[in-house]
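Researcher: Structure prediction, please.
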Amino acid sequence: MIPTPAKPRILRRARLSDQVFDWVLEAIRSGDYGPDDLITEPALATALETSRTPIREALFRLVGNGILTERGRGYCLPLLSRDEVAHMFHTRLLLEADILRQIPDAPDVTALRAASEAEKAAIRGDAPRDFIAANTAFRRALFDLCANRFLTEIADHCNDRMQAYRSVTLAEGANRAAVAEDHAAVVAALARGDRDAAAARYLATLDRAQAAYKAMALPR
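Model: Predicted structure follows.
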């Protein structure tokens, strides 16, 4: 019998368009872009020192995922109607409540506490952009406590589609202070093993966010 050669290991490298996609998505999540900012292929090609082809591919994917929308000769964060905001928050409340239910009884809150402290530091420094980045880090650390990656990926996608509203509402100092206080309470509750109290405080934050987002949303 002729032996069958071992199957070679295939090495995969991330495509350039995938790297651009990840870079733009992270910039959106970190508050680098607001609803009035126009994202263009030439500007990204210059910033990332690459050709426009992978830029275009990445931007088309972001549009297809509902994270960006086309505007003139560029792209921007989408604005939703009030009904769409309501539907999105209905989905978020279902998903994120389930995420909180799946957090272990004695979770490691180190990363969560660090993100909460970063929010407080951004408030002291009056740095809205830094606060948005810390807010994203807090949500990421919270979701990381849930083992169900399918669930958290869907919740991440819902959050990404609402970044325009987050960047505007968190520009207000009072809103940042309220969110930071809620998140500190979530960390404290999880640290003492009170998952129910953590969930109640976190979901109350979502309820307030929904009211603020609806006030900004398009009528239809």
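Model: The mean pLDDT is 92.
Researcher: Thanks, that helps.
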